[in-house]
């Protein structure tokens, strides 16, 4: 489930195993998922219920509200004056490497997308990665 979520929307929304393990029992208690078959190594499978599908569709159709940018890079850059020159350089180099990889992955996702919504999201991923690269490239070295 975590791998699928990472593949589908990992560039915009992170999901951790601990979040999934914490939320699944709560969703089961609400009747939105039910216990499925016992998997290998004592893993527990879950299946979405009709009520869960209905709740998911209702959530999809609800007002999304404002987006909130939560960028560890931007938070660090705001406080980069507290870092040494070497630490700042490492931060920028690491960000450049990560966002270059994100850009490559987003380009591949755009090419692979058959669904226009998936393609639009992948194009947004490209724009986001390009914007982050523009940000780090605008920072003077030294």
In short:
The protein has 142 residues and is mostly helical. Helices cover 64% and strands 8% of the residues.
Description:
By secondary structure, this protein is mainly α. It folds into two domains: 2-61, Winged helix-like DNA-binding domain superfamily/Winged helix DNA-binding domain (Arc Repressor Mutant, subunit A), CATH 1.10.10; 72-138. The protein is 64% helix and 8% strand. Strands 1-2 form a two-stranded antiparallel ribbon. A hairpin with a 5-residue loop joins strand 1 and strand 2. Helix 5 (85-112) runs antiparallel to helix 6. The longest helix is centred in the C-terminal third of the chain and has 28 residues, at 85-112. It is elongated and about 55 Å long. The N and C termini lie far apart (43 Å).
Number of strands: 2
Number of helices: 6
Shape: elongated
Could you tell me the mean pLDDT? 88
**Helical content, roughly?**
55-70%
Question: Rg, please?
Answer: 20 Å
The spatial strand order of the largest sheet comes to: 1-2
Order of helices and strands: HHEEHHHH
Our estimate of the beta-strand percent is 5-15%
Summing up helix and strand content along with how strands pair, one would put the structural category as: mainly alpha
Sheet with most strands: 2 strands, antiparallel
Runs in which pLDDT lies below 50 for 5 or more consecutive residues are: none
Terminus-to-terminus distance = 43 Å
Number of domains: 2
């Amino acid at each position: 489930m975590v791998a699928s979520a990472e593949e589908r929307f990992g560039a915009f929304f992170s999901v951790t195993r601990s979040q999934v393990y914490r939320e699944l029992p709560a969703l089961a208690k609400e009747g939105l998922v039910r216990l499925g078959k016992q998997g290998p190594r004592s893993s527990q499978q879950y299946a979405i219920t009709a009520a869960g599908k209905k709740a998911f569709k209702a959530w999809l159709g609800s007002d999304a509200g404002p987006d909130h940018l939560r960028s560890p890079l931007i938070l660090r850059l705001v406080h980069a004056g507290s870092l040494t020159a070497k630490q700042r350089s490492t931060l920028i180099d690491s960000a450049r490497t990560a966002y270059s990889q994100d850009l490559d992955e987003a380009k591949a996702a755009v090419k692979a997308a058959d669904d226009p919504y998936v393609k639009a999201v992948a194009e947004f991923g490209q724009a986001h990665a390009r914007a982050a690269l523009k940000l780090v490239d605008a920072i003077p070295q030294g």
